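User: For my dataset I need records formatted as: sequence, then C-alpha coordinates, nothing else. Please produce one.
Assistant:
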Amino acid sequence: MAKYIEYMSKFSVKSLNKYLLFKLPSAYFSGVRVKSITDKEAVATVKHKWINQNPFQSLYWATQGMASELATGILVMKQIAASGKKISMLVTHQEGTFTKKATGRIDFYCKDGDLIKNAIAKTIETGEGQTITMTAEGIDEQGDSVSKFEYEWSVKVKE
Protein backbone atom coordinates (compact mmCIF):
# COMPACT_ATOMS: atom_id res chain seq x y z
CA MET A 1 0.00 0.00 0.00
CA ALA A 2 2.80 2.45 0.86
CA LYS A 3 4.21 2.00 -2.63
CA TYR A 4 0.90 3.03 -4.17
CA ILE A 5 0.47 5.96 -1.79
CA GLU A 6 3.94 7.16 -2.81
CA TYR A 7 3.04 6.68 -6.48
CA MET A 8 -0.12 8.71 -6.00
CA SER A 9 1.58 11.53 -4.11
CA LYS A 10 -0.07 13.99 -6.49
CA PHE A 11 -3.47 12.37 -5.81
CA SER A 12 -4.86 13.26 -9.18
CA VAL A 13 -8.26 11.97 -10.24
CA LYS A 14 -6.54 10.00 -13.02
CA SER A 15 -4.04 8.27 -10.70
CA LEU A 16 -6.76 7.43 -8.16
CA ASN A 17 -9.00 5.91 -10.83
CA LYS A 18 -6.04 3.87 -12.11
CA TYR A 19 -5.50 2.72 -8.51
CA LEU A 20 -9.15 1.56 -8.47
CA LEU A 21 -8.67 -0.51 -11.60
CA PHE A 22 -5.68 -2.38 -10.22
CA LYS A 23 -6.39 -2.52 -6.47
CA LEU A 24 -10.19 -2.35 -6.20
CA PRO A 25 -11.43 -3.88 -9.46
CA SER A 26 -14.92 -4.67 -8.12
CA ALA A 27 -15.47 -0.95 -7.50
CA TYR A 28 -13.96 -0.01 -10.86
CA PHE A 29 -16.07 -2.47 -12.86
CA SER A 30 -19.18 -1.38 -10.95
CA GLY A 31 -18.60 2.11 -12.31
CA VAL A 32 -17.27 3.80 -9.16
CA ARG A 33 -14.88 6.66 -9.97
CA VAL A 34 -13.14 9.49 -8.17
CA LYS A 35 -14.61 12.78 -9.37
CA SER A 36 -12.53 15.26 -7.36
CA ILE A 37 -10.25 15.56 -4.34
CA THR A 38 -8.84 18.44 -2.30
CA ASP A 39 -7.33 18.54 1.18
CA LYS A 40 -10.79 19.07 2.67
CA GLU A 41 -13.23 17.27 0.37
CA ALA A 42 -13.45 14.22 -1.85
CA VAL A 43 -16.18 13.24 -4.28
CA ALA A 44 -16.70 9.74 -5.65
CA THR A 45 -19.35 9.10 -8.27
CA VAL A 46 -21.24 6.14 -9.70
CA LYS A 47 -23.99 5.86 -12.30
CA HIS A 48 -26.83 3.38 -11.98
CA LYS A 49 -26.40 0.71 -14.67
CA TRP A 50 -27.37 -2.89 -15.23
CA ILE A 51 -24.09 -4.15 -13.68
CA ASN A 52 -24.65 -2.38 -10.34
CA GLN A 53 -28.42 -2.54 -9.91
CA ASN A 54 -30.55 -4.44 -7.44
CA PRO A 55 -33.79 -6.31 -8.33
CA PHE A 56 -35.73 -3.04 -7.83
CA GLN A 57 -33.90 -1.25 -10.68
CA SER A 58 -31.94 1.06 -8.42
CA LEU A 59 -28.30 1.25 -7.35
CA TYR A 60 -27.31 -1.74 -5.22
CA TRP A 61 -26.52 -0.79 -1.61
CA ALA A 62 -23.06 -2.38 -1.79
CA THR A 63 -22.11 -0.23 -4.78
CA GLN A 64 -23.20 2.83 -2.83
CA GLY A 65 -21.04 1.54 0.02
CA MET A 66 -17.99 1.20 -2.25
CA ALA A 67 -18.38 4.74 -3.56
CA SER A 68 -18.99 6.25 -0.13
CA GLU A 69 -16.06 4.41 1.47
CA LEU A 70 -13.84 5.56 -1.38
CA ALA A 71 -14.82 9.20 -0.76
CA THR A 72 -13.72 8.92 2.88
CA GLY A 73 -10.75 6.61 2.30
CA ILE A 74 -8.99 8.72 -0.31
CA LEU A 75 -9.00 11.65 2.13
CA VAL A 76 -7.33 9.38 4.69
CA MET A 77 -4.77 8.22 2.13
CA LYS A 78 -4.05 11.79 1.01
CA GLN A 79 -3.40 12.98 4.56
CA ILE A 80 -1.21 9.95 5.33
CA ALA A 81 0.88 10.70 2.24
CA ALA A 82 1.14 14.37 3.24
CA SER A 83 2.39 13.41 6.71
CA GLY A 84 5.42 11.57 5.32
CA LYS A 85 4.99 8.90 8.01
CA LYS A 86 4.07 5.23 7.80
CA ILE A 87 0.55 5.11 9.18
CA SER A 88 -1.91 2.25 9.11
CA MET A 89 -5.56 2.85 8.27
CA LEU A 90 -8.54 0.60 8.90
CA VAL A 91 -12.32 0.87 8.90
CA THR A 92 -13.47 -0.31 12.32
CA HIS A 93 -17.19 0.44 12.04
CA GLN A 94 -19.68 1.44 9.35
CA GLU A 95 -23.33 2.50 9.26
CA GLY A 96 -25.54 3.45 6.35
CA THR A 97 -28.95 5.05 5.96
CA PHE A 98 -30.96 4.98 2.74
CA THR A 99 -33.55 7.71 2.17
CA LYS A 100 -34.48 7.59 -1.52
CA LYS A 101 -34.28 5.19 -4.46
CA ALA A 102 -30.86 5.70 -6.06
CA THR A 103 -31.10 6.03 -9.83
CA GLY A 104 -29.07 8.03 -12.34
CA ARG A 105 -25.69 9.44 -11.26
CA ILE A 106 -24.99 9.59 -7.55
CA ASP A 107 -22.13 11.69 -6.17
CA PHE A 108 -20.79 10.84 -2.70
CA TYR A 109 -19.38 13.84 -0.86
CA CYS A 110 -17.02 13.64 2.11
CA LYS A 111 -16.01 16.98 3.62
CA ASP A 112 -14.02 15.65 6.59
CA GLY A 113 -10.46 16.37 5.43
CA ASP A 114 -9.71 18.49 8.50
CA LEU A 115 -10.91 15.72 10.85
CA ILE A 116 -8.48 13.18 9.43
CA LYS A 117 -5.67 15.73 9.24
CA ASN A 118 -6.04 16.40 12.98
CA ALA A 119 -6.27 12.68 13.83
CA ILE A 120 -3.08 11.95 11.90
CA ALA A 121 -1.27 14.82 13.62
CA LYS A 122 -2.39 13.47 16.99
CA THR A 123 -1.30 9.87 16.28
CA ILE A 124 2.11 11.17 15.15
CA GLU A 125 2.42 13.34 18.27
CA THR A 126 1.26 10.73 20.81
CA GLY A 127 2.07 7.43 19.09
CA GLU A 128 -1.43 6.26 20.06
CA GLY A 129 -4.06 5.12 17.59
CA GLN A 130 -6.85 7.54 16.80
CA THR A 131 -10.38 6.92 15.60
CA ILE A 132 -12.61 9.37 13.79
CA THR A 133 -16.00 9.11 12.16
CA MET A 134 -16.17 10.38 8.61
CA THR A 135 -19.39 10.88 6.66
CA ALA A 136 -20.13 10.50 2.96
CA GLU A 137 -23.52 11.54 1.62
CA GLY A 138 -24.91 10.36 -1.71
CA ILE A 139 -26.63 13.09 -3.72
CA ASP A 140 -28.59 12.38 -6.91
CA GLU A 141 -28.85 14.52 -10.04
CA GLN A 142 -31.86 16.37 -8.61
CA GLY A 143 -29.84 17.40 -5.54
CA ASP A 144 -31.64 15.00 -3.19
CA SER A 145 -29.87 12.88 -0.60
CA VAL A 146 -30.28 9.17 -1.36
CA SER A 147 -28.00 7.71 1.30
CA LYS A 148 -25.60 8.63 4.05
CA PHE A 149 -22.73 6.49 5.27
CA GLU A 150 -20.58 6.89 8.36
CA TYR A 151 -17.18 5.21 8.54
CA GLU A 152 -15.14 4.95 11.70
CA TRP A 153 -11.51 5.04 10.61
CA SER A 154 -8.65 4.04 12.85
CA VAL A 155 -5.19 5.45 12.14
CA LYS A 156 -1.95 4.63 13.92
CA VAL A 157 1.72 5.29 13.32
CA LYS A 158 3.51 2.07 12.36
CA GLU A 159 6.52 1.18 14.47
